[in-house]
Every structure is written in C-alpha cells, then in structure tokens.
Amino acid sequence: MCGIVGYIGDKQAAPILIDGLEKLKYRGYDSAGVCTNDGEKFIVEKEKGKIEVLQQMTGKGKKIAGTVGIGHTRWATHGKPSKENAHPHISQSESFAVVHNGIIENYMELKSELIRKGVKFVSATDTEVVAQLLEYHYNGDVLDTITKVMPMLKGSYALGIMYREMPDEIIAVRKGSPLIIGIGEDENYLASDVPAILDKTKNIYRLDNGEIAVIKRDGIVVYDLSGNVVEKTVETITWSVDAAKKDGYEHFMLKEIMEQPKAVHDTIIERIKDGRVVLDEIRLTPEQIRNFDKINIVACGSAYHVGVVAKYIFEKILRKPVEVDVASEFKYRDPIVDEKTLTIVISQSGETADTKEAMKEAQRKGSYAIAIVNVVGSAIAVEADDVIYTLAGPEIAVATTKAYSAQLAVIYLMAIYFGDILGKICKEDYKNYVSELLALPEKITDILDRIEDIKNTASKLFARKDVFFIGRNIDHALSLEGSLKLKEISYIHSEAYAAGELKHGTISLIEKGTLVIALATYEDLHEKICSNIEEVQSRGAYVLGIGCENRQHLSHSADSTIFIPKTCDMMLPSLAVVPMQILAYYIARFKGCEIDTPRNLAKSVTVE
Ligand code: F6R
Questions:
Q1: Closest protein CA for atom 9 of ligand 1
Q2: pTM as predicted
Q3: Residue 26: what pLDDT?
C-alpha cells in the first residue's frame, strides 16, 4: 500500500523523491505526489494515476525547486483516488505539509471538531486531519506541537512532516507503520521501505513505535514521546540494489520464482547445525513448548495458506490441536485462546494490519506469539514475543512466491524442532527430515529446469474461463495457494476444493472443457484422488495432474501431467507449489496481464 520518501540535502529534492516513489510502486498505489520547500513556500505536485503522470508533469521532478521535500504513493482508503485526495496534504494556511501511511481511526471525530472551529478541508482523507490539527494546535515549537497532537490520533501511522518556516528539517513520526531514515553525507533520507533509498545509502536507522526524528542535512536526532533523546544504532542493509532489480527477467515474479532455491537455502542453512535444527533466535523454552496444549495460526492470503499446510504438518507430527484463522476473522470471533495456546503469526511484509491486530488480540488473551516474518524490523516482527525471519530477500511482485516457500521452510524447521522437544520424532525420522530439508533447494531447482515444459502447458490452457484446484490432505492445503496464484494475476475465475467435497455440490459446475488441476502428491490418498479425477473427467473436465515422479501411472488418469521429485510428505508442498506458480505466471503472461502489479491489489495491506 502507500509509500513514503523524504530527502534533505544540497541536491534538487524532487527528482530524488520521484525516483524513490518509482521504487515503491510495487507496494500498490493509485496516485502519487511530492512537496518541496523552496525556502519560502511549499511547492506541491500530485496527481491520480501512475507515477509516469507525475514524471511528465514535473519533468521527472526537474521543474520543482527546493532541496528538501517529501513524497508519497497513495492506495486509496478514505476517499476515492483523485488529485485532491493524493498526498502530500497541506494545512489551510500552508504551514504544514504531511505524508502518511496507515490509518487515523478517529479522523471523522477530529475533522468535525476542526470544521466546527472554522477549519476548511479540501480532501476526504484522514491524513489531511493531521496537517490541519498541527496547524490548529501550533504553539511556536514544532516538535512540542507534534508531541501534543500525537496522542489525539488513534490508529497506526507513519508520518513525514514539513513546517514551512523550517526549510532545514523534516520530521518523521512512527506509531505502528514502519519508517526508516537513510543516513547520507551532508544529506539524509526518509522512507517507508528500504528499496526506496537503497541506491543512495545502505546505512539506516529504523524508527521504533512512538519515536519522532528530526532530520536535518547534517544530522538526525531521535526523541521518544517524553522528549528524551534516543540513541539509535545504525543498521547496514546487507542486500544489494540488484536484489530489488529485475536482473534481466521480464517480471519480478519470474525472478522471484527462480530465486526460490536460494530463499529456502538461506532460510534453513544457518538453522541446521551438525544435523540438528537450532532455533537460537527464539526465547521460547522447551518447557513452554511442552506446556502448550494448542497451536493457533493467524495470517492472511498466501501466508494463511502456509498456515493451512502447517496445520496438517503440526497435527500429524506434534499431535497437538491446531487452529488456523484468516486474521481478519480471528479478532472478531472472540477466539478461545489463553496462556496455554501458542500463536504463530505468518507475514511476509510484517505490516499486514489484520495479522498484526489478530496477533495483538492473541497476546491480550495471554498467548505467546511467534512471528514468521520476512521484513526485518517490521511492526509484526517488533511486536511479537519471538520472531523467526525468513531470509527470502526483498519480494517485489505483489503475488508472493519466494516468501511463501521460505515460510514453508520455517514451518518444517519448527515441526522438527518442536517434534523433537515433545519426543514425537524418532531418531531415524529426524535424520530423514533434516536431510530432505537440506535437499529441497536442489529439488526445487530440478523443477525450475523444466520451466519450458510448464510454459508449454500454460500455452494450451490460458484461454480457460473456470479452473478448479482439487487435492486431499496436504494437497488440499496447497490447492488453496495454486488457485489464489492463478486468479490474482491472470483474472481467471478459480476455486480450490477438497477433492472429496466436490461431489457435495460444486461438481454441478463441471462441464465440458472445465480445467481441473488435481494435486496428487500425497501418497496415502493416491487412489482416492484418482477416483476424484475420474469423477470430474466423466463430466467433461480436462484434468492436469501434478504428482510425484514415482507415481507415473497418474498419466493414465489425468489428461496431462507435471511430475515433481519425491520428498517426505510434509515437504511436498514446497515442490508442488513451484509448477503452479510457473503455470499461473505464464497463463497471465499469455493473457497479457500486468503480472507484477495486478489490478486492485497492494503488496502490503496496512488497513483492516
Ligand atoms: C498473494 C499474496 C497475499 C499476501 C497477504 C498477506 O500472492 O501475496 O495474499 O500473502 O496479503 O501478506 P503478508 O504476508 O505481507 O502479511
């Protein structure tokens, strides 16, 4: 969703801001804008639509004077996408300029109050309320005013603020939504996300909740809410600019699909020492692990699908009950969770509002929360009781691929680690799991080497209108992800169904030519899924089967097949997901869809 950039230095600010916004557009947006201070006044340029529109209007920023400024990409929440609603927002007398990520939940109340006092609003956004509040309550000291206004704002937010009379500083405020400050030489940056400034500096400060930073050309001072100076540690970003570039691939999604062996390798390798799984980073003790009587998993979208896979794995190996919830539903069903429940939170961005809220709800009820997160220092990572980072590197395409695979890898690590502590895994199984886990990157590479065959299959299927993904047990969990991948980027209607459930209603939708993708990797239920394949075929469906290479007779049941290498049951999803991602990618490509930024979607969903 929305993105923030800021610059202060000796160079012209607007070209740097627009360049930064370009790098944030993967997050999803529908309008963009910048505001600079030329020493006397604010210069604001913003417009609905693509950043290219802003680039054209401003000559890529060259037409805008000023060496200090803030910029924003907006994904509409309050008020439609329009020029008026685009950020930056300026207060009535043009004294404050504000860009904002997140949500001010009580903005209507605050707005009505300000309107009663005579303040005139020009937009429908919650953000404008912040600019107007700052101006209304201005007491001669910008920092003090901000500190007084912050407690009035309910919700989560990251703010970039400029005060017209102080053209030599930008103020950054974090409560909930992430913000980083890039440290340069005689120049400094502000951003909501590392890629925006990675080609300018690798040294950053991450603001923590409740911190306020005053960013000047030659220095940065960070304060807490009581006005005390906070000593921050400089973090050096280790990934390169290339990690956030397409590297010759036509789309980020394809690049990220191809990066999966590395993402899985990097995620597991430091956590397996001398054949043992070591999760040094968690504080959760073996005693606590033994005391939990239930596991509770919350996440959204693909991360939720990882949770569904995890339920099958944990219940089978740990023999503890597992509940998986879509995070947006969890909080509002008064879930039965207490200190005997372990909560596992899964999120690539670490920013997803629903997931964060679900985690907090579980924590409020006394549950210990472990988060599996990709983005270092993100809100969920910071607020969880423990965090296990996936080391997938930056994921840019909206449709997740490598982060999904890295999350699965962490689930396997946890299953082995917890299973061992609970005494549920014998020596032989332990050894086998670890060796299969270490072999996963190579087996994924094996499938990627056959990408042209899968592309060829996609070329025959891209015109289908309806697709069903079916599977049983862990294959069913995986079918959810296959179906989401396809529909979100190709806009083809698709549904995932437990194969045995189809005949209880949905099979009436199968007609001549309906594409059914049958996942048949789970050996114990092979005969049963083959019967389900026959059921749909006899009603006219065309079946593409995905199975393990030791089960070649799947070719006799399905109309066409894709085979994956064999591995232990729990790790099958890591292999079977790869052909489904490639299929979705090429089907979308043959259809001419905008793959990396599908319509209506944002990379991180920071509103509930
Ligand atoms: C689908 C996809 C989304 C995300 C979901 C959660 O390809 O990427 O469904 O999985 O929005 O996002 P995170 O993992 O950032 O919490």
A1: 301
A2: 0.83
A3: 78
